[in-house]
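Example record

One chain of 412 residues, shown exactly as stored in the release files.
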Amino acid sequence: MRGRELRGELDAFLGEREDELIGFRRDLHAHPELGFAEHRTTQRILDRLRRAGLEPARLPRGTGLICDVGSGDGPTVALRADIDALPLMDEKDVPYRSTVQGACHACGHDVHTTIVLGAGLFLAQQAEAGLLPGRVRLIFQPAEEVPGGALRVMEAGGISGVDRIFALHCDPRLDVGHLGLRNGAITAACDKVSVRVSGPGGHTARPHLTADLVFALAKIVTELPAALSRRVDPRSSLSLVWGRVQAGSVANAIPDDGLAEGTVRCLDEQAWHDAPDLFKALLDSVAVAYGVEADLGYVRGVPPTVNEATSVQMMRDAADQVLGPGASVPTPQSLGGEDFGWYLESIPGSMARLGTRTPGDDREIDIHQGTFDVDESAIGVGVRALAATAFTALWEGRRPTAEEATAEAIVA
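Predicted structure tokens for this chain:
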């Protein structure tokens, strides 16, 4: 299907369905559910897909679902949405304000879900008309914020047989109508680190007779981040930032234990994989020097989200077709975490940032705030972008490689 024809089909579809999709988003926004508890959300998506004649399958643990559109003849691409909310109070005065105490869609997952649903409904129409050149898998993933939902999808075979995967994420600093694209890492790995230090304790008048635990902990807190800049390629952006340091209870006693907790961020996959061993070696070297014991707790969060260049180009080409030239713009890297990175460790794909700011609105609104909201015309933009990306990826996937084309020419 040529770009002009696809754009016309999408315009006609959204002319009929855009109000319904906005209503669907508002319903989700008013009834947010936290990670692995998205039972109502899952049922709402299931019901709507079944009404369209599709056969969605709930994930084994009860929340989240997968739904295939089209036949298995040809390549398969996946469109992913995350469906969970955040444990925040909704501070907006709008008719669709959260009705759930302490839960709020403050990251746009209600928008992501609605967009993938809308794209799926449009693609189902195209498949029924015999116009879909392959299969599209809709992934409605639970618990992105926990995180861990992506791993549950993968455990259930959610990306088995998938050639490429795509997703959007709301960006309140980008105007509606724009798609932010970037090759390589677009978001960072995010892990949690804890260091528990122990020693014999003692009197502050006689630090030479014991291990000065607070001094040792201070050295760990300052020297570990500093050492990283000399042990790791700075282009990896591997960083350690402490969020909590605790030791002692009185001024004249050296305590026998202390704790430091923080997060590790990283944009490079290899540096991320190597980080736990490196941290352990650095920690041990400092602890030994000051005569304390130091135990490292390292909890994996998510890997960096590393966009594959060909998949990014597919999103760019799709945006040009259905949003117009100039709709795709460069977007900066973020050190925030996103569990879409787990998929991209296994298959190529790309995540793009979806502009949700009304043009001319100069308010500083960010995600993960109780005041977060979107210009709802972004829903139609997202449906257009993901549906066109699916078509682009399916057609590109059907084209023979250079080697296959050469072989066919020799046979001919």
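Notes: The chain has a mean pLDDT of 95.
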